[in-house]
Amino acid sequence: MDLREELPSDRQAVRDVHLQAFGDHGRVVAELVDTLRDTITPENGLSMVAERDRQVVGHVMFTRSLLDAPRQLVEVQVLSPLAVMPELHERGIGSVLVRHGLGILAERVVPLVFLEGDPGYYSRFGFMPGGGLGFRKPSLRIPGGAFQALRLPEHEPWMTGTLVCAEPFWRHDAVGLRDADT
Prior knowledge:
Elements: E1 2-5, H1 11-21, H2 26-37, E2 46-52, E3 55-68, E4 73-84, H3 93-107, E5 112-116, H4 119-122, E6 128-129, E7 135-136, E8 147-151, E9 161-164, H5 167-171
Parallel strand pairs: 4-5, 7-9
Antiparallel strand pairs: 1-2, 2-3, 3-4, 3-9, 5-8, 6-8
C-alpha cells in the first residue's frame, strides 16, 4: 500500500471511496470533500489517499478551522472525513492514513486536531473527549463522546475554548447529527 497526497486526477476515485464507504450518507460526504478540497493550501490542511495496486482505496482529509480561545483565535485542524473501501475494512488502511497525517501536522506545528467520531476507534491515536480537555463542541447536535481532540506538541495550556468549524461543514450540514424522526 502506498500513501500520498491527493492529486487532481484522484477526484473521482476519492469521491467513489466516500460514496461506497458512507452508504446513504455518501453523497453528502463526497460533496463536502469536493468543497473542502478548495480550502486546502500547501501550508494549511492535508488530503491524502491510500493506494493498493494503483487504485485509491482510502482517503483522509484534515482542514483548517479555528479555536475561539480566551487569549486569541488559534488555527487548528479538523480530521474529516476518513473513508476506506468497505471490502478493505479492518486491514489497517484507515489507521495508517490517520497516523501519517497526524505526523505531518505535528511537523507543521499544528497545536490541535479535532474530530467528530467513534471514541472506540479514534482513542488508539490519542484522541480524547474534547469536553474533558477544556474544549467546547461547535454544535449541541454532536454527541458528547464523539467530540474529540488531540493535543500535538505545539499545544499550549491557554489553548482552550470553542471549536469553530470551517464554513463548508455548516453549508453541507455536516456538524453533528440531525434527528431522523423529524
